Amino acid sequence: MFQAINKDVKGASTSVHVPGSEIKVGYEIKGVDISKPLSDSEFQENIFLPIVQNSVVAVRGQNLTVEQFIDFGRRFGKLEKHVISPNVLDGHPEVMHLSNIKKNNKNIGRPNPGAFWHTDLTFTNTPNDYSLLYSIEIPHDKNGMPRGDTCFRSTISAYETLPKTLKRKLTGISAKHFHLWIRRRYGDEEGIELSEVQRARMIDVLHPVICQQPETGRKYLFVNSAHTVGIQGMSEEESDALLNDVYEHIASQETYTHKWRVGDIVIWDNKATQHYATKDYEYPMRRHLWRLTVEGGAPHAAD
Questions:
Q1: Which class for 80: exposed (0-12), middle (13-18), buried (19 or more C-beta within 10 A)?
Q2: What angle do CA 97, 272, 52 make, to 5 degrees?
Q3: Is 82 a catalytic residue?
Q4: Of the listed 120, 129, 264, 269, which one is catalytic?
Q5: What is the pTM assigned to this prediction?
């Protein structure tokens, strides 16, 4: 069965289709130069449709200015200004530095980002729809192999393969999310410099555990061990046991591992995936990427 999707973003306003069968995650797009203008139809066919079908896509060999990267990100919708403002690019609050490089003895960006399985911005009322990473510098080992891979799993596939008993337990319930949950739990807040105003924005938010893409009808799991504090209305013990079962199930899904090269762009459907940044390098091995996030809406509870 195929279902139509209509996205209200530039270049993606016509209908595309997604298969209702096995979910795949990860796809490499070839033959596209993002520094050159793409028509709406080219963007729809060559970029947007593969993301809908595969949740994660990679475009290698790009050579972009920051303005070109921002312009490309805006094809997906309005860009977020990240809450951790000290780590954004000067003059471009939409662009976040992910980097272990120091300037004047201070980190220019987040030095250890995402070294745990998570979905971006679930601690907000309106988590983003898409995330984009562009690689500037990539660390390599003594054999020339890249370090700092990024791994992805599908939360759609995780829902569709849930055991019936677990699916029943999760139906109709919500979970609390908080930004610094995993870092506070394990005492790791390195590189998190927030003003009082920014910290005041960080409150527990509630999201359904099982959500549904309004455009495709696909259901997905919306909890992650980095930001999900617990299940609403359950004791801590009961909640932890249930969430651990869910996390183990998500961990059993197929993983796409992206091995970075300089000039790569990776784009992913944020709500339909979880991702993890491999921390297998140390300075002076340098890693530097730019990140964009595309504004989203509140997750829709599944019917």
A1: buried
A2: 95
A3: no
A4: 120
A5: 0.87
Place of tokens 């562009």: 134
Task: Give yes or no for a contact between 115 and 128, defined as CB atoms under 8 angstroms apart.
Answer: no
Judge whether 275 counts as a catalytic residue: yes
CA distance 279 to 222: 24
pLDDT 10s per residue in the chain (303 long)?
A: 222 333 333 333 333 445 444 567 999 999 999 999 999 999 999 999 999 999 999 999 999 999 999 999 999 999 998 765 668 888 899 999 899 998 888 888 878 777 889 999 898 899 999 999 999 999 999 999 999 999 999 999 999 999 999 999 999 999 999 876 555 554 444 444 555 555 555 568 999 999 999 888 999 999 999 899 999 999 999 999 999 999 999 999 999 999 999 999 999 999 999 999 999 999 899 999 999 999 999 999 998
From the candidates 82, 97, 118, 177, give the one annotated as an active-site residue. 118
Instruction: Report whether 279 contacts 115 (CB < 8 A).
Output: yes
How far apart, in whole angstroms, are the C-alpha atoms of residue 59 and residue 33? Answer: 9
Instruction: Please indicate whether residue 227 is annotated as part of the active site.
Output: no
3-state secondary structure of 221: strand
Active site residue 118: yes
| Amino acid type, 235 | S
Neighbours of 187 (CB within 10 A): 7
How far apart, in whole angstroms, are the C-alpha atoms of residue 259 and residue 249? Answer: 24
